[in-house]
């Protein structure tokens, strides 16, 4: 499934500043050197993280590419959150920051070694390979323990993490229109598919995800196998699968013909043939 976080506008250093202060070339070089030293201390800044050691879990935080989520980023870049990660056996934290990359890098860089609690930390703005970061949080028997993805409630990101089978904490971004991410988070938690995390209490969500990992033996999953497309009718049980079908108009048409008629009405789905590409429209 295609994700919405790609390598457009990577990095947080492209902005301009104004004011009367003069910044010398030497100061700029020193700042760049400090940033490189920080990133080299942990994971590579813009590359998928290496597989964590079997003794430690990996946490990947993502906010997507289209909207900032500063409150989530601020909370995961605190000493208290890192302490909770370490307490639940996590060895590494990787944060995709979007437009807030520079600010979050500075917050993380201010944490000393004791405050990091032995957790290797890295952050970056965007990535062209979201799947590689997510898969590092999926448990694999004899290779790596299950970690955790903490994500905003974007349907593309949520669908990809659920498809991989990695433990997931969904945190709704309350600044978005109609707060639609909250409805998604609550519905998926009711189905026991995710943990609904909330700003201000993410450490509680970590505790609940740790329980799920233990109860579900998620440390011992078999190797990941990408699903075949289009998904078979027997396995098409979520809205995300119907989103995938929009790329297969012929299969979508067949499936719609097989849908039951309720009270004389066909399902409220239409196909747009202008560009030979199916488009779902829900009333």
Automatic annotation (TrEMBL):
It comes from the Eukaryota. Keywords: Endoplasmic reticulum, Glycosyltransferase, Transferase. It comes from Parachaetomium inaequale. One of its GO terms (biological process) is dolichol-linked oligosaccharide biosynthetic process. One of its GO terms (molecular function) is N-acetylglucosaminyldiphosphodolichol N-acetylglucosaminyltransferase activity. InterPro entries: Glyco_trans_28_C, UDP-GlcNAc_transferase. GO terms for cellular component: UDP-N-acetylglucosamine transferase complex. The keyword Glycosyltransferase applies. This is UDP-N-acetylglucosamine transferase subunit ALG13. Belongs to the glycosyltransferase 28 family. It catalyses: an N-acetyl-alpha-D-glucosaminyl-diphospho-di-trans,poly-cis-dolichol + UDP-N-acetyl-alpha-D-glucosamine = an N,N'-diacetylchitobiosyl-diphospho-di-trans,poly-cis-dolichol + UDP + H(+). Signal peptide: none annotated. Its EC number is 2.4.1.141. Residues 59-194 form the Glycosyl transferase family 28 C-terminal domain. The gene is ALG13. It is an enzyme of class 2 (transferase). Residues 1-22 are annotated as: Disordered. Gene3D superfamilies: Glycogen Phosphorylase B. It is found in: Endoplasmic reticulum. Involved in protein N-glycosylation. Essential for the second step of the dolichol-linked oligosaccharide pathway. Residues 1-17 have a biased composition (Gly residues). Heterodimer with ALG14 to form a functional enzyme.
